[in-house]
Amino acid sequence: MEKSTEKYLGRGLHSSKWNKVLDKNGKSKLKDFIEIVRKDTNLIIQIRENYFNVYYKGGNLLKVNSENSFDFDSNYYKGNPDLVNNDIERKVKRQNALKKLKEIHDYQAFIKDMENIMDDYWDWLEKRDSDNRTLHEKDTQHQLCISNTENSEYTIIDLEFQVSAKEECPYRYRKTFRPNGRYVKKEKKSPRFDIIAVRNSDHKLCVIELKSGTNAIYGKSGIGDHADSFEGSIGNNHMTSQSFLDEMKKVISDKKKLELLNDNFIVSDAEPEFIYAYAFTNDDEKMKNIEQKEFEMERKKAKCEKYNVIYLNKGDFTLSDKKH
Measured between alpha carbons, how far is 125 from 141 in angstroms, rounded to an integer? Predict the structure, then answer.
């Protein structure tokens, strides 16, 4: 198999097509769109490799490749009973919606329509599987993002960070020494981390893995597997940590230019820290103690005790070191 010759750029808006958008004095139609998103507390912009996504309730409402290149998942139309089993019609509706967006640029109307479509989709998913772990984790992830800003202890700067499998990626995952008792996926190429944040007290970059419910702490994608993912990629050595830090500095720089972060927001040069955030699924103190004990037992068994845990009460989405 031939190795990819494509240069790894990492997350950030690198291409010259973004110059007008990133320039505060530049004239771009997307500036109006970004302003609308910025004012909507239900929406979040996250920068990817030469594009950005707009998230609503943990789902990707719109992928923005340039001023006139957009996309979203046609499966969101499954919230309409008449379209559940009609893949062709769903794609036609998506094409028509994107065509209208490009021609008219009525961003406000498009966002309102998409939020309604996605609300119907979430209801449809909930009815099919009310215990859908991924669905609940995405919603928690989204609530965390809008609850942790420069005015709190942590500022979330990225979600769903997937490590590239490209050879050119400086922190591409490599198998590491695995302690006994730690379950790790056999075929792992591109680890994904839930949250990237900066702790505002010391400006340190933190990689945070979100867990909700004790079923999420074991086995495949459990806390041992996530520790291995960090140790085999970002946290492998000083070089990999520095490369990831540099990439996140680019994201932060671009977010400042898009006015998504204040100009005085900074990140330190310290190596990134790995943290677990565990969301309790019960309000009852006795049940919470049982969940915490179970988490701590698995953390010890998986040899992950060096990594801190932030515990979150049900319905509480504020990350705080006081909740260790």
Answer: 17
Least confident of 61-75, 138-152, 301-315: 138-152
Q: Give a yes or no: residue 2 inside a domain.
A: no
pLDDT score of 3: 45
In the structure encoding, which two tokens stand for residue 311, read together? 């515990």
Question: Residue 182 has which token pair?
Answer: 């730690």
- Shared-domain flag, residues 123 and 264: no
Quick check: 192 and 230 in contact, CB under 8 A? no
Q: How many domains does the chain have?
A: 2
User: 296 and 171 in one domain?
Assistant: yes
pLDDT tens across 234-293, in order?
999 999 999 999 999 999 999 999 999 999 999 999 999 999 999 998 899 999 999 999
Task: Enter the tokens of residue 24.
Answer: 């505060």
User: Which among 78, 103, 128 is the end of a domain?
Assistant: 128
Amino acid sitting at position 57: K
- Domain residues for the domain of 107 are 16-128
Q: Decide if 9 is inside a domain.
A: no
Both 33 and 116 in one domain: the answer is: yes
pLDDT tens-digit profile of 45-60?
999 999 999 999 889 9
The Cα 57–Cα 61 span in angstroms is 9
- Confidence band (pLDDT; 50, 70, 90) for 131? low
> What is the DSSP secondary-structure string of 195-258?
EEEEETTTTEEEEEEEEESGGGSSSTTSHHHHHHHHHTTTTSSHHHHHHHHHHHHHHHHHHHHT
CA atoms within 13 A on the CB side of 60: 17
Domain-ending residue, one of 81, 106, 128 = 128
Within-domain flag for 1:
no
